């Protein structure tokens, strides 16, 4: 009998294809189902016990999508960033995470800054999708949180090798692109 992690991987493999609204919605739904899994399942019980900062749960050998688990500590803040060409779905299994979204403003003088668009508190069983170019940050609001991050490609390659991910820094109260 398959556990919820194996079921998630099989279902996403079965529906995989080019980026469409339907694919994003289906992946989000599958991730919400995974986030609602029983903590008695061996793989999830191990995640709760080990509380790893980062663990790869699944990497598809044919399509390249990746599922990671992140245990976030109270107050952990990940400054605004995008995911390059990738689209991503986050789902919360335990705790609460605030996710704020931003719009990028290109000034006439060439400067770039961010304007906050929205703020959402993600709770257990909920998922949010971010498409290529979307900018967001995250902050853990509880003692700890267990977050699943589904990416349609390996973000380590997108970020470190191809340098397509943009990260932002606080420049005196204004978020601006980090120096390359």
Descriptive account of the structure:
Helices cover 24% and strands 39% of the residues. It is an alpha+beta fold. The chain has one domain: Jelly Rolls (Sandwich), CATH 2.60.120.10. The longest helix is centred in the N-terminal third of the chain and has 15 residues, at 21-35. The N and C termini lie far apart (48 Å).
Point out poorly predicted stretches: none
Helix content: 10-25%
* Gyration radius, in Å: 17 Å
> Which class best fits the helix and strand makeup?
alpha+beta
Q: Mind telling me which CATH architecture this is?
A: Sandwich
SSE topology string: HHHEEEEEEEEEHEE
List the domain count as a whole number: 1
Task: Please count the beta strands (DSSP E, at least 2 residues each).
Answer: 11
The top-level CATH class is Mainly Beta
Q: Mean pLDDT, nearest integer? A: 93
Counting H and I runs of at least 4 residues, what is the number of helices?
4
State the shape.
globular
Q: Quick one: biggest sheet? A: 5 strands, antiparallel
What is the strand arrangement across the widest sheet?
A: 1-2-9-4-7
Instruction: Please report which band the strand proportion falls in: under 5%, 5-15%, 15-25%, 25-35%, 35-45% or over 45%.
Output: 35-45%
CATH superfamily: Jelly Rolls
CATH topology: Jelly Rolls
How far apart the termini lie comes to 48 Å
């Amino acid at each position: 009998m398959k556990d919820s992690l194996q079921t998630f991987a099989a279902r996403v493999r079965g529906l995989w294809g080019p980026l469409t609204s339907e694919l994003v919605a289906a992946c989000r739904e599958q991730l919400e189902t995974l986030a609602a899994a029983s903590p008695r399942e061996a793989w999830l019980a191990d995640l709760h016990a080990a509380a790893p900062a980062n663990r790869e749960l699944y990497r598809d050998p044919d399509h390249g999508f990746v599922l990671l688990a992140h245990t976030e500590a109270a107050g952990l803040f990940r400054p605004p960033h995008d995911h390059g060409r990738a689209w991503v779905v986050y789902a919360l299994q335990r705790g609460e995470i605030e996710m704020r979204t931003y719009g990028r403003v290109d000034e006439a003088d060439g400067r770039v800054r961010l304007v906050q668009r929205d703020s959402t508190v993600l709770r257990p069983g909920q998922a949010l999708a971010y498409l290529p170019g979307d900018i967001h940050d995250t902050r853990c609001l509880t003692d700890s949180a267990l977050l699943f991050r589904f990416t349609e490609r390996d973000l380590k390659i997108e970020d470190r090798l191809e340098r397509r991910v943009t990260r932002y820094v606080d420049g005196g109260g204004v978020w601006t692109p980090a120096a390359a």
